[in-house]
Amino acid sequence: MLFNYVIGVSLSKKDNRGKVNKKTLLTIGIISNILLLGYFKYADFLIENMNSLLNSHMSLLHLALPLAISFFTFQQIAYLVDSYRGETKEYDFLNYANFVTFFPQLIAGPIVHHSEMMPQFSKTKNKVKNYHNIALGLFIFSIGLFKKVVIADSFAVWATQGFDVAVSLNFFEAWATSLSYTFQLYFDFSGYTDMAIGAALLFNIKLPINFNSPYKATNIQDFWKRWHITLSRFLKEYIYIPLGGNRKGQYRTYSNLIGTFLIGGIWHGAGWTFVFWGLLHGIALVVQKIWSSLGFHMHKILAWFITFNFINIAWVFFRAKEWNDALKVLHGMFDLDKIHIAKVFLKNIIVTSGESLEQDYKTVFSFQNPLIEYFHELVLTFGLKTYVNLYISEMILFGFIIILFTLNSQQLGLQFRTSIKISFPLYILAIFSMGCSLIIMSLNTGTVFLYFNF
User: Fold this and answer.
1) Which residues are catalytic?
2) CA 395 to CA 286: how far, in whole Å?
3) Which of 69, 81, 121, 80 minimizes the C-alpha distance to 99?
4) I need a labelling partner for 273 at 20 to 30 A (CA). Which of 25, 49, 355, 402 fits?
């Protein structure tokens, strides 16, 4: 923090009489930050690849990743660039330190801009209790907690089973696995963001919106305007535009897009699957730009269907620990020769209390006809309920209903009023969300936010 603050202050000075010119100083600042991030996050990745290419046996460092290093590195690089551009003011070190380490959004964002945060920290009015902000903050926090604990962690069970445990997957299992992770990631990360926004409001600090119903997007550009909005902003302002943006011709625009998303991919994690995920999104944006430039149009429902399925398939690479895990899931998703429900997977998604129910069903309805047996397996997987958990198919349907037909947390927040008479249904929703979350948290241990990994 001290290093970046000193350089930022030097860059923001109007005179340029220092021993080192501003461009060189900015370069030193950016490279220092990137090298620090690279050492902790990518050293073992580089060693593994060197060992593979050179057939060497260099030992891995196994470094502990400093908490939130990806986020505070981007945040401070943005501060240095803005200081170089003359877009910052003279800030005292305490406010700058608060800007970098503000705990609600420190771990996983949003990636905040200095101009959004610094004035709020120094504003006298924000140091007085604001009961509307406290009530609104608790409301948004409760929605985020429900998303994480009740919804995301439910999908996590099936996603983990499919990606990390199952040796092979058939058609239904593979789609259940991919969709489970698609919903897990959204509800986990947007839930964390809601909790960060809600916690910040308790201190009268307003964080920027980071999600705006991204799975309603009808093209990939629209998706990135809705998903992890602050990361998209950073990639655009500090990577895409400095590379030339769309100012240097059509082909340069396309290469800039792909290059930007390759960087976005590797930023998320040290692995070739992340790079490939970024490449897929970069290519998709190029295809979408070409499509738009040709004047083609697509029906809204079809456009949504294609966009959502592309995102869902791309997430497979984002989630997979190894290439083989991704290929296993994709093979199952498009292997139409094995459209059946495996008994092993079935037992894994049915909790212990439901096993007797499954056995009773099999005993009563034991048929020899293959067609009836096939229908029988579908009923077992998609029809039976247990007293503890909902089946994966019902949860996926529930997920689709939420992402497509309900208001998101920010839209609900706009309807929130401190008056109980006006916002009584929202108060009930908040109490219900908090209650369910606390009950499940008391029964569960070991949960973790996905974006801690990035």
Assistant:
1) 268
2) 34
3) 121
4) 402
Q: Which two tokens stand for residue 10?
A: 């030097």
Give the C-alpha separation, 69 to 388, whole Å: 39
pLDDT tens per residue across span 178-236: 999 999 999 999 999 999 999 999 999 999 999 999 999 999 999 999 999 999 999 99
Whole-Å CA distances, 343 to 166, 170, 333, 351: 12, 11, 18, 14
Helices marked H in 114-248 — which ranges? 114-122, 131-146, 153-160, 171-201, 220-226, 229-235
Amino acid at 88: T
Choose among 91, 64, 87: nearest CA to 4: 91
Distance CA 136, CA 247 (A): 43
Q: What SS3 class is residue 109?
A: coil
CA distance linking residue 290 with residue 271, whole number of Å? 29
Residue 288 to residues 153, 293, 371, 433, Cα–Cα distance (Å): 33, 9, 43, 39
- One-letter amino acid identity for 367? F
Q: Which amino acid is at 352?
A: T
Q: Report cis status (omega within 30 of 0) of the bond before 110.
A: yes
